[in-house]
Amino acid sequence: METHLNGIRLHYEDVGAGPALLLLHAFPLSGAMWRDQVDWLRGEYRLIVPDLRGFGGSDAPPGPATMEQQADDMAALLEQLGVDRAVVVGLSMGGYIAFAFWRRHADKVAALCLADTKAGADSDEGRAGREANARLAEEQGANAIAEKMIPSLVAAGASQAVRDELRAMIGANSPDGIAAALRGMALRPDSTPDLASISVPTLLIVGEADALTPPAEATKINMGVAGRPTYVAVLPDVGHLSAMEAPEAFSIALADFLVQLGGW
Ligand code: MLT
Predict the structure, then answer these.
(1) What does pTM read for this prediction?
(2) What's the whole-number mean pLDDT along residues 139-151?
């Protein structure tokens, strides 16, 4: 499906019926990364699955795609769809956006699931690396980003099928959208001070072998979040993109959390 909001065309899926979840994908993927979770949960829940600005079928306007802008896009999407509150699920960059969403639109958050993400901002070195990758995307295209990133996105033992799917998903994205998201992530603030204000139930999921945002980052979030209960699921032998690498374990952890929430 397609809509227009905040000056862009945004592509999204809206499937199932019941209490709503908003699924925010990782960089540099698209809403398609949530396919297995959608299949798993659609019988009981409404799944709203956007291609974030710059990715998939959504527009990639010039300039950095900040986490705040992405969060405001999501608030506008929920408003258009008549959804007052959703469980916000964000993996990695999706988690950065979930933090911004919490800062700006907390009234729309029924609960949070933060997967393979971190609260901290980039270091100077991290920002320089993002700018180098943005230029790589602009000069050599999305496939160059796929080749560079895939080894760190999944665990060493990840299947060829997952790697092929990732290559196709990343390669289909626009280089401009990839560059815009990289520059947007580089600008994101430290979300650590916001953790103490998180008053909704929170689930943390992380791949045990996540090389980019390892379990220690989930522990830091867990220590900071004020809202209780907080749940943590560490998925063994799984890398950064845990929802794709271990779809069943991820979906079971999320479904278990949702059952405990009841309705919202
Ligand atoms: C992601 O998976 O969204 C990225 O690894 C996030 C990042 O580059 O910080």
Answers:
(1) 0.98
(2) 98
